[in-house]
Amino acid sequence: MKFGKRGTALLGIATAVLLVSSGCSGGLLGGGNDSSGSSDTGPIKLGMVAPTSGSSAPTGVYMKNGAQLAVDEINKAGGILDGRKLELIVADGACDAQQAVAAANKLVSSGVAVSVGGYCSGATLPTLPIFAKADVPMIIPAANSQDLVKQGLKNVFLINGTGMQQSTAALEFIKKQGYATVALVDDNTSYSKDITTETQKQIEADGAAKVVLNTSVTAGESDYSAVVRDIMSKNPALVYWTAYYQEGGLVINQLKQAGYSGAIMVADGSVDPSLPKIAGAASEGVFATMTQTPETLEGADAAKWIASYKTAFGADPGPYSTQSYDAVRVAAEAIKKAGNTKGADIIKALEGIDGFKMFSGPLKFTPEHTLSSGGFVILEIKDGKFVLKDSLS
Amino acid sequence: MTQVIWDGLFVGSFYALIALGYSMVYGIIKLLNFAHGDIYMLGAFIGFAALTSVGGIPASLSLVALLIVMLLSMLLTGVAGVVIERLAYRPLRSAPRLAVLITAVGASFSLEYGISAIAGPNPRSFPVRLEGGVFDFIGARISLPQIILMVIAALLMFWLNTYVQRTSTGRAMRSIALDMKGSLLMGVNVDAVITRTFFIGSALAGAAGVMAGAYYGKIDFLMGFIIGLKAFTAAVIGGIGNIKGAMLGGLVLGLVEAIGSDLFGGQWRDVFAFGVLILFLTLRPTGILGERVTERV
Is the pLDDT of residue B81 over 80? Predict the structure, then answer.
């Protein structure tokens, strides 16, 4: 969802790189078409484009580990399709459109059967046609912009709630709390803009509240006094921040310093342990729309899962660890059902899945290949931690 | 409106501090040091490392601790600037300008991803924050930390100006800017002066880095990029190569951004900043205080 910051500034260099990489990608793509997923022996390869460098790198690690855990578990249980093992190949998309395209080409040419990656919507979007051309089904664990399914590509499946479902959850909470005026702030990226646009549409259609401001900031800066002044002059009852935690922390802090006393809510891209650290005391009582995270999961199964994640990687799971874990399991389930690794058969199997157990609830895809229920809940920051506030059910 | 002007001046003083380093280096060796914004980032991380290693600091001492850490960070970023110049720029001094420019981009990436590899890509929250009272001044909300930071910035800039105008090194800097070969023939140790220029410029950026960390509370390895571009813009607006111009350009850019975003909404802020850059480059490429340079054949 972030655009290559460097790329825009160093246009000349970027263009040169682009020429070279696009030249290569044609060749890679051609090679990929023959080999992708059609081999009948050896390990079944799952590809994941995730950011392992750049500013979203921390999340890339959570995703990679989550997926690896599922792969290890399935392999330990004897693999699938008569004992064939799974193999996870991670390629760095850096949350950047050009890098993600290169990464997707690399995965396709190494013959992955299913793609289980995709974090930043803006970077995932240009990889869709690459996987589609190579007949590789995509089970996207994190990226959730409506744009991803708008093209109606048959191979694209989202297992994270979409921006539309998130907006519905936001509206439900706004009505519950009785906020009369709402300010929407995004950072002009595909993911973030998707939520503000959709939320505004839904709020206006509903009529219970009023959108008094819909504005954007530029990511990567430190000073957000301009948007803070905008918000202060409208003095809304709720500020809904739909971009990422790095800037979110700063905006929350600067809002409170400017004397803002209303409520603040953030979207799932801002739900990260770093947010309360960056914003400091100002983040107490901030709400968030989010799908279940490892921290908010309850029950014995979740505790067992977190423990096995910890033993495997020596660190706590984070945002999108569970979704990535589920993406691999869904992929394995679909391959099992399809009985082979042909793209078309796997897609058919995915469409037929009904009630497969995931962290976010039983899985069933809508005709648009999104989740039939988004599973969004409301979290609240208490003592510097996100805790469950309202499960909206 | 007073709030808008105050916000603009506050951000502008950060731009000015960083723009100085851009402008000094450009003035002397005609190099756009793209790694300069990352020196600012480096300064913030050195401050972070120093404050974290000390451990808990009582709130009453936080300003003193910050000042000490800022001096330490200035020293180290100054050295880093010198090392970069020695390794990356000096061997290329007679090479075509484009080669040096690309080297500067390389130095910038090396710093960014070097820090990312050492400190990790996660954003860090600064261990010490400037806290202080907020008061009302003809309609603007002004906080004590803002005043402290602006005073520090003003003192640094005042000192720099005196240094360049009054000392022999300052005179040597100005003479190299006018004519490098001539200065060399007149017995000026050009390499030593360039080294010193890089030291001072980088130290100022390092100071700005620590100040930003302490005020905004978040640092990350890409934090120098946008502010580096803005500082470059400020240097161009003021007249690149001109020290007073860099200070003025920083404040002007801060004000233009604040007023522009007040009139048209916050999302237009950067459009204004860089639109002004384009305007200046087309209408007055020498900037507000820059002098017209006659092309020598």
Answer: yes
